[in-house]
Amino acid sequence: MTGLVYKEWKQNRFFILMMIACGLLPFVMILYNREIVTNPEEMSNFRIICTVIAFLAAGCIQTMVLQGDDRKIWGYWITAAPDGYCGFIRVKYEMVFAMIVLFVTSLRMFDELFCAAAADKGWELTSSMSTFAIPLAFLQVLLRATDIPFTLRYGNKKGGIIKLIYCILFVIIISVLVLTNAGNIDVILFETGEKLFTEDNLTLALGILCVIALAAYYISYRISCRVYLKGVEQYDK
Amino acid sequence: MTSKKDCAKRLGIYLLIAFAFGALLIVLRKPMESSQTVSFIVAELFCASPAIASLITRAVTREEFRDMKLHLNLTGNLRYYLLAFALPCIGVAAMYLVPVTAAGHSSWLSGFTLTNVLACVMILAGQAALVSVGLLGEELGWRGYMNQKMQPLFGTAGTCLIGGIVWGAWHFPIDIANYLAGSGTLRYSLETAFGRLALLTCFGVFLMWLTQKTGSVFPAVVAHFIYNASQNAVMMLLEQGNIPEDADLEGFTGTFEYVPFLIMGAVFMVLLLRDKKKTPETA
């Protein structure tokens, strides 16, 4: 297992270290645009935009570490290794999760540093970690949980396209259901949303999202283990 | 094989560096009071000081960086990770709720509804996976380094006791910060410091047991994070209850808050000693 961790580090250390830079990104963007933002309220809104951009950048980089291993020869070789292909997939999952953790930690550090610096200027700002960054981080876990099985099953290029097709199909189905109001779905969705996102339930809903994201990540790993060998047969075609 | 002399030397250097960072909190008190930025940077450095100290000591004494217990070791150890999450949660909840209930103020606990408790547990679970890594700064030093060096010198029971006291003493600059800033009495600061010392000594036994069982510092990181975060969660739920402004628990009930962790410490000390007996002595 240590060998696989070493291989991932040698192969992807640039992307892993880029996570720290992504956490720094909102801080840099704010410093660069400090003259445009003139009051704490504007600053809060601007920080939300910067943080979302940082999450998008980090997400793109996280998917890049999945590239390069979609070759038949590697698939056969790692299957014959002592840890097997499941060990390889596990290290991939652990590495992607570690990248998310590194990004969130870096983001938290620089965000709190910024809040402290703003407090010295007399601006009272709340740390983004206590508001929107944590839900976004779990959303990122959920997105990676969907990305990885597609990449391992269909290879990097084809996997991206097939995932896009599935996403478009999903959006079309939901749109058609909502537009035609089949099975009274509009009312069901509205009522569920209304019940779920009341002020009393918001914390619980957030907690459920956290647990679902983590569970989905584990289920995604199990799915990847099941489909990997089928994918290997299709690589290099 | 590392000799006892080497262990003592390494332990000495490690503690010197870790406590030097602690002294920064007292030395830089004035600039920290006047600037939030300085306060943040010094506080973060202080929190990471055990890890920094262990790395510096390893480098200075030409010790290898191999046995840092940084592997997750999830296979076969998932139950320890779950225990690392559940036990501090239960311990902290008992620490706050037992004294309140013993004093006959159950009506203060109206914030502890099923929805609220479930929400807190789920958020804590999520945060433990994603945010707890910050505590690596402490655990890499205390459990990942100091305990390893102490064990050949003081044995298992000695490491639990002395290690816990050292860990508690390292927090001393935080405990007296309010007094030094002029917003608290020395008596209250010392009470807080010794209370923390007792709690951390007991809790440290559990963390040491987790680290030994799994060969990884990550369960200890999770448990430490949950210990800190669940205190905030319990306080938040207590604030939602009907607590009068002049609320005060009777004197004797305050001592109940130490009972859960005292029991935890005793149980895991027995388990550690039993494990040690099972392990065959090597020449």
Structural notes for this entry:
The complex is a heterodimer of chains A (237) and B (283). Chain A is mostly helical and 237 residues long. In chain A, helix 2 runs parallel beside helix 5 and helix 4 runs antiparallel to helix 8. The radius of gyration of chain A is 21 Å and the shape is globular. Chain A starts with a helix and ends with a helix. Chain B is mainly α and 283 residues long. Chain B has one domain. Helix content of chain B is 76%, strand content 0%. Chain B is built from 12 helices and no strands. In chain B, helix 4 runs parallel beside helix 10. The longest helix of chain B is centred in the middle third of the chain and has 35 residues. At the A-B interface, helix 4, helix 5 and helix 8 of A face helix 3 and helix 5 of B.
Query: Biggest interface, which chains?
Result: A-B, 33 and 25 residues
The proportion of residues forming helix of chain A, as a percent range, comes to over 70%
Show unreliable segments of chain B: none
Low-confidence blocks of residues of chain A: none
Percent of residues in helices of chain B comes to: over 70%
Query: Beta-sheet strand percentage of chain A?
Result: under 5%
Mean pLDDT of chain B: 88
Strand segment count of chain A = 0
Cα-based radius of gyration of chain B, to the nearest Å? 20 Å
Approximately how much beta-strand content do the residues of chain B carry? under 5%
Shape of chain A: globular
Structural class of the secondary elements of chain A? Answer: mainly alpha
CA-CA gap between termini of chain A: 29 Å
- Could you say which overall geometry of chain B the principal axes of the C-alpha atoms support? globular
Order of helices and strands of chain A: HHHHHHHH
Summarize the main sheet of chain A.
none
Number of strands of chain B: 0
Give, in order, the helices and strands of chain B. Answer: HHHHHHHHHHHH
Short description:
Chain A contains 8 helices and no strands. Chain A is mainly α.
